[in-house]
Known about the structure:
mainly alpha, 12 helices
Amino acid sequence: MVRPGHCEFELVTPADHAIYGIVIQRDTLMNAADQTGCQVDWGRLAGAEVMHASAASRTACLQTLFSVLAQDAGECPHRDACQQAVIDALLCMLDTSEVDGPVSKSFTRRQRMVAKARDHALAHRDQAVTVPELCERLHVSRRTLQYCFEDVLGISPMQYLRLIRLNGARRHLREKSSGAQTVRDVASDWGFWHFSQFSSDYRKLFGQSPSQSLGQRKDC
């Protein structure tokens, strides 16, 4: 549901219904779209009350919001990074650009694009690579990158970046040769700066805490 600022509205909801809203200045959103190559139909957005987004982009946005909401306000030293993640997720739903023709016509090209994205993410693992950074690096639109990942892997670029870092952290936690001495060392090596969120995401994915994995270390 979409509403512009300075406009009243009414909602009738069940008693136990909770609503979360993203409030963002129009100029901020437009500047972010320009910087990341997103194409947004601003006229349609201004006049719409309900916007239809792809299932993948909705899922990615919800995961981002859950991650942000799970953090304690005093525990977020990188507030700008949290805000940028929300903006990225929002733009992913609003992007109306077309998929680049050459990429859409060849599965091999899509696989190659995913491989390049993976290589770049692994080469800069401690920097928590973002989707806009990948788009700039690979010279493609956000929609094209989204299309490649959904078609090749069945998940969004945001989901993949998170999974590749969590899996990398797991390998390092369990390998003595990694050189990292603590869970926090490994988390920071893979660009996780919100420790409690890292621990929560790690447990959900692997069924054990990072410290348990550290206790299972073996020579590799």
